[in-house]
Design a protein that fits this description.
This protein is about 15% helix and about 35% strand. The chain contains three helices and 15 strands. Strands 6, 7, 8, 9, 10, 11, 12 and 13 form an eight-stranded mixed sheet that branches. The chain is globular and about 50 Å long. The N and C termini lie close together (about 5 Å).
């Protein structure tokens, strides 16, 4: 059966805003995995309940931060085996989260890369980390990469020893007011059954006040 993912930088704990809470609840009921960046105190919780349905939260707060806004979280009803958090190379205490879905065997990951020049280092480092855990199996990573999508296909190896990944992006801006595409998915060993989409008609309405749009992808 198809499995859908959504990534959303909620710009703070979505439970602090009725509009963001409604947005999170809608995403949870529509997708198998909800990947949240800048999750705030939500990243300190073990579970979250919507309409009597309990979702497990795999999360990590930003180490050493003055505030906890930059925590990341993965929410799901599905069964999984979690991996230890991965400390991103240049992200001031930020972590990449990952797990293995026991139903489909796919590794699911999310991160919030540091901005500017460090973003690419965080992205590549996390993909290499997941590559080691995957042992050749399927991987899907979504998040706020704080960098525009790399060329597709994306080689994080060398010319002599390539390590090829596919980029799944919506093709339009996902962060405002900068108007850049920072939120997307990167995967390997998966068959994409549904097109990537982004919320419309706009950030204020569609993303419930966050400065990021959410992005989805579906695999089979």
């Amino acid at each position: 059966m198809p499995l859908s993912f959504v990534t959303w930088n909620s710009q703070g704990d979505p439970r602090n805003s009725p509009a963001k809470t409604a947005q999170l609840n809608n995403l949870l009921t529509a997708h198998g995995y909800v990947l949240v960046q800048e999750a705030g105190a939500l990243a300190a919780q073990a579970s979250y309940t919507v309409l009597g349905v309990q979702y497990t939260i795999l999360s990590e707060q930003q180490a050493g931060a003055f505030n906890n806004r930059c925590g990341t979280a993965i929410l799901t009803r599905r069964n999984f085996v979690a991996f230890a958090p991965y400390t991103l190379p240049n992200s001031n205490g930020r972590f990449g989260l990952s797990l293995r879905d026991t139903g489909m065997g796919v590794i699911v990951g999310t991160l919030h890369s540091n901005a500017a020049a460090n973003a690419g280092v965080d992205r590549t480092g996390f993909l290499q980390h997941l590559d080691r855990n995957a042992n050749g199996g399927p991987v899907m990573v979504g998040g706020d990469f704080n960098a525009v999508p790399p060329p597709n296909p994306f080689n994080i190896g060398t010319f002599a020893r390539p390590d090829i990944w596919e980029v799944y992006a919506s093709g339009g801006p996902t962060q405002f007011p900068g108007g850049l595409e920072l939120d997307y998915f990167i995967g390997r060993g998966v068959v994409v059954a549904g097109a990537v989409a982004r919320d419309t008609p706009g950030v204020a309405a569609g993303s419930a006040g966050s400065d990021h749009k959410w992005v989805t992808v579906t695999i089979s």
